[in-house]
Specification:
Oligomer: single chain
Number of helices: 2
Mean pLDDT: 89
Strand order of the largest sheet: 7-8-9-10
Low-confidence stretches: none
Number of strands: 10
Shape: globular
Order of helices and strands: EEEEHEEEEEEH
């Protein structure tokens, strides 16, 4: 089995050989696989590790806003051609024992309901997430893969209406 492992104590910028932070056809693949081969991916949280169990709301102001959504990969699929449909089967998802949720005023689908920053630290154990910030509440652990996709071609990038096309990764 192929593997892409990360150091969770380091950010993507410190481990560029493990991933990227944008979809672009010129980003070199980390590895190549044959159709049907399995790959183990270790992934980062959406803040690229900036939010930790001791992070406070005040700390969020100093975080790098451009570090959002680090992606593990890319992986090249041998013999895949533009226009092919790729099927990805997530065989197993093993969450780490910590997660977080942030509500940011003016952002997200609840932006009209929440007017103050709020940060929740979750501990995941025994199939549930619990938080000191929301005592007495437990939520079924709902680990998910996050974002997965395929790189666009240069032609697809040029065809995006209303978007600036940057030919360099």
């Amino acid at each position: 089995m192929h593997e892409i492992r990360i150091d969770r104590d380091s950010r993507l910028r410190d481990q560029p050989h493990t991933g990227h932070n944008r979809w672009h056809p010129d980003i070199e693949p980390i590895l190549s696989v044959q159709p049907g081969e399995s790959v183990l991916f270790e992934t980062r949280c959406a803040s690229d590790g900036q939010v930790r169990p001791d992070t406070t709301i005040a700390d969020l102001a100093s975080h790098d806003p451009c570090a959002a959504h680090p992606l593990t990969g890319p992986v090249f699929i041998e013999d895949a051609q533009p226009g092919d449909t790729l099927e990805i089967v997530f065989e197993d998802i093993q969450p780490v024992d910590y997660g977080w949720t942030r509500i940011r005023p003016g952002a997200g689908f609840l932006r009209h309901w929440f007017h103050d920053d709020f940060l929740v630290h979750w501990r995941l154990a025994d199939g549930f997430a619990r938080s000191e910030q929301i005592p007495g509440v437990r939520i079924p652990e709902g680990a998910f893969m996050g974002t997965a996709g395929v790189a666009p071609s240069h032609e697809q990038l040029r065809g995006l209406q209303g978007a600036a096309y940057d030919p360099a990764p």
